[in-house]
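Exercise 7. Predict the joint structure of the components listed below.
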Amino acid sequence: MEEVKESHQKRWIHLKKVLERPGPFTHPEFEPSPDILDFILSTCKILIIGAGGLGCELLKDLAMMGFKHIDIIDMDIIDLSNLNRQFLFRHKDIGVSKAQVAANYINARIAGCQVTPHCCPIEDKKEDFYRGFHIIVCGLDSITARRWINGMVVSLLNYDDNGVLDQSSIIPLVDGGTEGFKGNARVILPGMTACVECTLDLYPPQVTYPLCTIANTPRLPEHCVEYVKVVQWPKENPFGVALDGDDAQHTTWIYEKALERANQFNIHGVTFRLVQGVVKNIIPAVASTNAVISAVCATEVFKLATSCCTPLNNFMVFNDIDGIYTYAYEAEKKDNCTVCSNIPHPVDIDDPCKMKLKDLIDFLCENIKFQMKNPGLTTTIDGKSKTLYIPTIKMIEERTRPNLSKTLIDLGLRDGQEIVVADVTTPTSVIIKLRYTISDVEIN
Amino acid sequence: MSSPAPKSPEQNEKSKKYDRQLRLWGDHGQKLLENSKVCLINATALGTEILKSLILPGIGSFTIVDGEKVSEEDIGSNFFLENDSVGLPRAHVATQCLLELNPDVRGDYIDESAEHIISNTQNFFKNFDVVIATAVHEKVLLPLSKHLWECDVPLVVCHSIGFLGYIRLQIKEHTVIEAHPDSESPDLRLDKPWTALKGYLDSINIEQLDQKEKSHVPPLAILHYYLTKYKNSHNGALPSKRAEKEVLKQMIRDSGHSEEGNNRFILEENFEQALHYANSCVTPRPIPDHVKAILDDDSCTNLTQNSSSFWIMSAALRELVQAEGELPVKGTLPDMAADTLSYVTLQNIYRKRAEHHAESVYRRAQQIARNLGLPQDWVTESEVKYFCKHASELHVIRGSCIANEYQKSNLDLSSYLEDPDCLIFYYIILRGLERFISEYNVYPGQLDDQVEPDLLKLKGIIGKLLNEWGYSHVLRDERVHEVCRYGGAELHSVSAILGGCAAQEVIKIITHQYKPLNNTFIYDAINTTSATFCL
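Solution:
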């Protein structure tokens, strides 16, 4: 019996209409042809990052849009609180890898689909892995992970000797994010359009409570919870282990202590739900918003892979608190972006005789442009490489710790000095260039 | 003395499972959701995507009405139909697949067309809280719309064609207590403090505090102190103009400066916040227009035995406003730089006032219900508390019947037609498409060799429609062409976008929280844009 060619099957009739007919709004390079469907069915490789609220939807959407070769990566396991929206998971799957269960479900449901799961952190995969995909799509809740993958796709770019970008090295990154009834979707053409780092100021700052407030003048139930979390827990260490927000015993202990503290100050409103929210920094989530944002991202992946429409340029926000609101605009690429601008980044130093290495590290963490977490710094002095500070390796940390309290001048760093900075927010290093604003610095 | 800590509530399975959404619409919203009954007409890809986002958060039950059999094309766009189900009743297969999503939800199906049910079992649809219709065309849509309008069951109509989406909400009257606005100014009433608040704030003399006390005094006390001073020197008038507020702010700045180091002055955080509140919180808060309109609405002033608890509470609120000249105090205080004792004291003053107002509205509401001969529990105290807390966000939507919109000879679109990029043109094309289907029983462009001739026919139909409405506008050919290119194709990812949007509107209708769409939504996935029209 003759096998019917996959792309001739009736089930793809919907896709064939937009792929095999000319239209007024297609990409200028679009040539209607059955080859396009063949390409997405048999050649195109997609990577989905995250198998949570967005990832489950993305996997279904892309598989239904004809993509057969999909990899999905997520290090998490399934929790009961995922089931209200992560629809590929059932009660029996609790405790099992998200990527694995999601892949199995789709492979069983959609004929011919070959989803490959990767149950590990994204940092475990190297450049060669990421280079193997035509398009990468993210459904993450972590900004740090987003910045990392963004740095990765930028690092895969090739420039020729004249600094001209090799277009074939571009792997488009489609990114979605949600919070409650709000969400956004974006298309990043690395090196061409605004990247995650160019628009870092779009992410709301994390809510933090000053230590003096939570210790001395608590007013809100959140202040009481935070106090127990950051002061009482480390001091009393009730279970002899680090605090785990997913451990009911731990949360219960915090709840009881927070309630005690709240009662002492006559503060109302400490509930178990609130305690969990503060301890785990929970972001509210609902099926509908995840469905919308994932489907917007999947539509963009389809457009990028087929050229049947011009893709989103390049940012879309969604909010359905009051009616249904959407807004699409072009986020601007930053000429001096720390990740995608391909140049060293000047850092102005007022007084290198007073500024200590610790101050420089604080600056890299607090500055809106860098927003690093735990940077490590190395440089070259008189042709020899010198480790200034590496926080992540215990032995080197101990050896380089004294440098923190030395001034830049004492460390031998000069005007124009280039320092290589490594941080969890980027898979490649960032190069900063010190710029001393006072002209004559005496170096002894 | 504080009460002993109650036993930690080890949360039950359900509240753990729904935790992430309970943080949005609360246990009371969830309860309404769990008691709701939803009907879906036609288990298309769009239809099942809508149900998916309703079943996951846990509606009570759903019923699918669909007389079609599963086709191979269906399987290509609809995730909730299994590969080997070709030829089986679509309603049955979709129901089975969807039920898998959440064991808390009940589901059944009727293997009959909506058309058949409308003409044979008139009362069938009355039993639902919401009816959702996808791929329902004029012939069925108009009688369905008329029928549901008469029996006051909300109807959500959705279409997904190629890169184009449409959602239309038909609801006679919808009331919202908790609109959850994105931002709101705090309700402080410093322009007209009640006795308890005034008494407390008057007791704090900012200028007699030492430096340490001064840095911990609540911003409201600072603002009140200088506002009183300002009033005393301005014949009791409040600052309203910008320049007047500037005078008040300068008084605060002068007092709050402290010296630090060599001639560097900094303003304490609580004084900074007092300045911030001076911008928006010293003028009387007018009752918002949409709330005024509710209090003057016929449904509020002419109550009957059929009045809903919303209108009884509105009538009670109206009495309170007439007696006190203001809306109930919200009773929540934003966090502000202050010592614990003063903050908690202030917070209690606001909370007590809110409780006092809520009790007063509750008493009045009970009296009103009694006078109407309604049962004692027609309005509950907890309901009144929410109502008063959100009194400034109350919202009423009165919709229109789809059948009327279709039968109108003069649809007023003039304000939209001036802009050639306006998405209203897709609405017009979709109306043309509906008529095309009524006339030819296929989608325009459904057959590969008919795209060009169908394009001409569709253009003719649209021209006629515009003529009927009295417009001489000509549509851009390319948009009509684009819709013919689709040939009725349903793209899964576009249906998934629409499905999420429509599901959220259904949740809003059921929970009476958040403001629903009013009333027509067009989504253009080519440009990732959308627009809402009130038709």
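Discussion. Chain B has four domains: 13-173+490-533, 195-280, 289-397, 402-486.
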